[in-house]
Specification:
Elements (H helix, E strand, L loop, with lengths): L10 H32 L3 H29 L4 H16 L5 H29 L4 H30 L4 H4 L1 H18 L19 H32 L4 H29 L1 H18 L5 H15 L3 H11 L4 H30 L1 H19 L23
């Protein structure tokens, strides 16, 4: 464990990192929220929209493991403010890139910045966490989900009066956050070491690659569900329900606001009901809920989308904590692979769904997405308690035998 890991828990640092996470992911959410505007103004097809989403996912997949591995060697905290600055440059350029190719380049730059933030952000969030690791990491994760939820609202508010060039205004958000994160980390790193605290440190154990690979497969499919809904639910509303782009973005924000609540609730529930329960049960809720969407009107979708959002992200912080515990000596790489690689492979699923949407219509896309959580649940049932889990970790429900 590095010196950073021996510093006292810092709620202020955790909140600053969570805010930075939220500002980075505001831009990620804004990218997806831009799709309806691009479809309407630049006449993108379903397949073109799928490649747009794939570009964002691949950029994340390529950069995050590299950044995470680099951080394992040197704990490159400077990547946090630098990543936020790069994110702002990328999102700002999207509205001014009139060719499809240049738009994809701007998307890649934006997501490279986001990718630079995630692994180091998760590492320093864990360093600043208390002994309630799952709950505290859910605060960090929730920041990102709230950012996703705010992203579509920001796009709707800014692009309505300014059009696509309004992305320059959105760029101010991560750039301002870069200053806050820089100051917070500088203060935290200057704190003196507090000595050994077993409750806050990960035991020195060997890497558990087999369960980690299962976790990666699980998160890839879960990412396909999340990215698929973010990409195609708004387009379903625009094309099948004749909703406006702004109205479709409101639905996306409802989905992500519920997902933010699900992230926090999942972290709390994992400490009381066990991690396995939270990994499995919400996936079984998602299947009928998503399958119901094509039969509903806009108003009828709202309560179902709230339920989907809560269930969709209940396992987010748990997966991140498990990744760090399965590879305790490579937390940056584990985080980068979990968030980055899985997002990239999830993007491949989304690109394939785009081809399906062009051929069979938007309802078919939602039905396929509804089946994916079954595979997520099957993989979750095979995961085991990490050897490096902190003392007191609840893996199964209290009434069941603990492993």
């Amino acid at each position: 464990m590095s010196a950073a890991g021996r510093r006292p828990a810092s709620r202020a640092t955790l909140l600053a990192l969570s805010l930075g996470h939220g500002c980075a992911d505001t831009c990620s959410g804004a990218l997806f929220a831009l799709l309806p505007f691009l479809v309407v103004e630049r006449h993108y097809s379903y397949a073109a929209a799928g490649v747009f989403a794939l570009t964002a996912s691949v950029a994340s997949a390529v950069f995050q493991p590299l950044v995470g591995a680099h951080g394992d060697r040197s704990e490159a905290h400077w990547l946090l403010p630098a990543g936020l600055l790069l994110t702002g440059l990328g999102i700002g350029a999207v509205g001014f890139a009139h060719s499809y190719t240049l738009t994809l380049v701007a998307v890649a730059v934006c997501m490279a910045g986001v990718a630079s933030y995630h692994p180091e952000g998760a590492r320093w969030a864990r360093h600043s966490a208390s002994d309630s690791v799952t709950s505290d990491m859910s605060v960090f994760s929730m920041g990102g989900v709230i950012g996703y939820a705010v992203g579509p609202l920001v796009v709707a508010a800014v692009l309505a009066p300014l059009g696509l060039p309004g992305t320059a205004v959105i760029a101010v958000i991560p750039m301002a956050a870069a200053v806050l994160v820089f100051v917070a980390l500088r203060r935290f790193r200057r704190q003196p070491a507090a000595g050994h605290d077993p409750s806050r440190q990960t035991p020195a154990t060997a890497s558990e690659w087999r369960p980690f690979i299962l976790l990666l497969a699980l998160f890839c499919l879960a990412s396909g569900v999340t990215t698929g809904l973010l990409t195609y639910l708004p387009l379903f509303l625009v094309q099948a329900r004749a909703a406006s782009p702004a109205a479709s973005n409101v639905m996306t924000s409802v989905l992500l606001a519920a997902a933010a609540a699900g992230t926090l609730l999942g972290g709390i529930a994992a400490q009381r009901l066990g991690r396995r329960f939270v990994l499995l049960v919400p996936q079984l809720v998602l299947v009928p809920a998503i399958a119901l969407l094509p039969s509903l009107g806009y108003a009828g979708m709202l309560p179902v989308v709230v339920l989907i959002g809560i269930a969709m992200n209940a396992n987010l912080s748990i997966a991140l904590v498990l990744a760090q515990e399965y590879l305790p000596a490579h937390m940056g790489l584990a985080t980068g692979l979990t968030i980055g690689l899985c997002s990239g492979l999830g993007g491949l699923i989304v690109a394939g769904l785009g081809l399906l949407g062009d051929a069979a219509g938007p309802s078919a896309v939602l039905y396929v997405i509804a089946a994916l959580p079954l595979a997520v649940a099957a993989l979750a049932s095979r995961l085991r308690r990490p050897a490096a889990a902190p003392p007191g970790t609840v893996w199964t429900r209290p009434a069941a035998a603990t492993r």
